[in-house]
Design a protein that fits this description.
With about 400 residues, this protein is of the alpha/beta class. The protein has two domains: about 170 residues, Spore Coat Polysaccharide Biosynthesis Protein SpsA, Chain A, CATH 3.90.550; about 200 residues, Four Helix Bundle (Hemerythrin (Met), subunit A), CATH 1.20.120. The strands form three sheets. Strands 3-2-1-4-7-6-8 form a seven-stranded mixed β-sheet. Helix 1 links the parallel strand 1 and strand 2. Helix 8 packs antiparallel against helix 12 and helix 12 runs antiparallel to helix 13. The protein is elongated and about 85 Å long. It starts with a strand and ends with a helix.
């Protein structure tokens, strides 16, 4: 499969999310099975450095100085007749394209265009063409004879975010478009919040840090390492009795973990935490609770250790219930019903446990806070067990 990307005269090579839109689209095209790309740029213009393309990038790239009219880019097709050998995608370089929109277009039989609106009007603006090599003689007449896929017909469900979000296909032509593009990138890298803290509190800080770090060479792996270091430092301070600083470092670690994931997804890199996300969360909260129990044991006796270990046992049971249910149903328990989705926001997890501990420290009752964490962890596990049994019996 081939792709032809074009840049019209007077346009810039726009940057968005730490790379040019050209590089972002090349990554997207490679992921959808394209094996070669022809990049058309105005005479006298040169291709920007493709610094984000790793050595494992397999897409064959070709550049050509060709004038492409912004008002009628399809008119250039006859001039490319010697270059077009197979079904090819035809799109603008400075396009921020949702992978779901491209996948939907490729399901169709060429020639076909991705259009904005409902696809019924003959003058609708198109964004991407999915064409055959023999279509080149038609030029600008091709749009009237080809099929159409409306952006509104693209599936709303986003598998990576596990929820329905509108697809996008934005042409970036000015600073206002760039601001809109940044918002789309941020929105499409934010997974469904695990709890009310991730929904209401941490996103503004995470998004600000992501935008700052995208302009640097700092890799997500370094942010992840720093987050894990904060987890360990917080656990050490809990054990030594430095509760205020321990809580601060614990919250910093949570924010940095969210930043690492978003940064990796925006830069189209494999997140260093994504595959171990639940394991890291499990380790964090239990490390904090066990070290806090160790600090409280001299004053409250062995019961402090019992509470800490019981929190770990409840958390482990909850993870087992969720894992087994997902394997049996092919869907997480939190996605089964509106009640499960709402309870997911307040159920016991790392952020909620840390919030309870923080309130307990502020009020001067750390041991009562630890006991409260245990109580809510037990309630969460029991509710999840009951909901899992209900859904398994019902379905």
């Amino acid at each position: 499969m081939q792709a032809v990307l074009f840049k019209c005269p007077g346009q810039e090579w726009y940057w968005l999310g730490g790379m040019t839109l050209l590089e972002r689209n090349l990554w997207l095209l490679e992921a959808t099975g394209v094996d070669s790309a022809l990049i058309l740029h105005p005479p006298g213009d040169t291709l920007p450095p493709l610094t984000s393309l790793r050595r494992k990038f397999r897409l064959e790239l070709y550049g050509a100085a060709v004038e492409v009219a912004a008002t009628d880019p399809l008119a250039v097709l006859p001039a490319l007749r010697l270059e077009l050998r197979q079904p090819f995608l035809f799109l603008e370089v400075n396009l921020l394209l949702d992978p779901r929109a491209l996948e939907t277009l490729l399901w169709q039989t060429p020639p076909c265009f991705l259009v904005m609106g409902n696809g019924a009007e003959p003058t609708l603006a198109w964004r991407v063409g999915w064409l055959k090599a023999e279509n080149w003689p038609l030029g600008n007449k091709l749009l009237q004879r080809a099929g159409r896929v409306s952006l509104t017909s693209v599936p709303q469900y986003h598998p990576g975010l596990r929820e329905e979000v509108p697809p996008y296909c934005e042409k970036i032509s000015n600073e206002k478009d760039l601001a809109r593009g940044w918002q789309l990138l941020i929105d499409r890298t934010a997974k469904r919040p695990a709890d009310v803290i991730e929904k209401l509190v941490t996103p503004p800080v995470e998004n600000w840090l992501v935008r700052k770090l995208c302009a640097t060479r700092i890799p997500p792996q370094l942010v992840t390492s720093l987050s894990f270091a904060m987890v360990l430092a917080g656990a050490l301070l809990f054990y030594q009795g430095g509760f205020s600083l321990a809580v601060f470092l614990a919250w910093v670690s949570i924010v940095l973990e969210g930043v690492a994931g978003k940064l990796a997804r925006i830069k189209l890199l494999a997140s260093p935490v994504s595959s171990l996300e639940h394991l890291v969360g499990f380790f964090s909260v239990n490390a904090w609770c066990l070290t806090l129990a160790g600090n409280l044991a001299p004053a409250h006796g062995p019961i402090a250790w019992d509470v800490g270990l019981a929190i770990m046992a409840c958390d482990m049971c909850d993870k087992v219930i969720d894992t087994l249910f997902t394997q049996l149903k092919g869907k997480t328990l939190d996605d089964m019903s509106p009640f499960d989705q709402r309870f997911h926001l307040i159920s016991n997890d790392r952020n909620v446990s840390l919030l309870i501990l923080s309130i307990g420290f502020l009020l001067g009752f750390p041991f009562f806070a630890l006991q409260t964490v245990l109580g809510w962890a037990a309630v969460t596990a029991l509710i999840h067990l009951g909901r899992a049994s209900y859904h398994l019996r019902r379905h």
